[in-house]
Amino acid sequence: MKSRVTRKVRLIVAASVVAICAAIVLSCTKQEAPPVNDQEGVAVLSYTRFLEPGSSHFVINKASVSGDNLEIEISASGCSGMTWKVGLVDSEIIAKSLPIQRFMRVTFENQELCLAYFTKKYTFDLKPVRVQGYNKIHINLSSWASPLIYEY
Question: What domain count does the chain have?
């Protein structure tokens, strides 16, 4: 008897998870705008790049939106940090909530094999992630605890 109840509870939980996942997928849409070519300091819209595995050997110390820019401060080990390649990739997925939400991550390449630890600031233009008909976006930045608000 106990195993039948446990099995029923598992089935109910599994069905609930499927329903929640379906609701999430249906409430998000992929933006139809053409992707932006890689430019230093500009957010890149690319679902495939967003899904690529990235380096986790850095820490985002600060993140904020100022005007049309996302400003971040990153720390990582290295020799000087001069050869770091840092980018911002948007998933091209827009969650249809109010305000709408976008999902982004910082890309980081570091070939420096030194034990020193550096902190550098970067700025990224957010204009490519604007959505026509809206003037406010919650940006969910991977490895950052709270959403960032971009108003334009």
Answer: 2
Give the global pTM.
0.70
For residues 86 and 24, state if they share a domain: no
Alpha carbons within 13 A on the beta-carbon side of 25 = 6
- Mapped onto helix, strand or coil, the DSSP state of residue 49 is helix
Nearest to 87 by CA among 35, 133, 45: 45
Q: What tens digit of pLDDT does each residue of 53-101 get?
A: 877 789 999 999 999 999 999 999 999 988 999 999 999 999 989 999 9
Give residue 36's domain range: 32-151
Q: What is the DSSP letter of 4?
A: H
Determine phi and psi for 20, rounding to 5 degrees: -65, -45
Q: Are residues 3 and 73 located together in one domain of the fold?
A: no
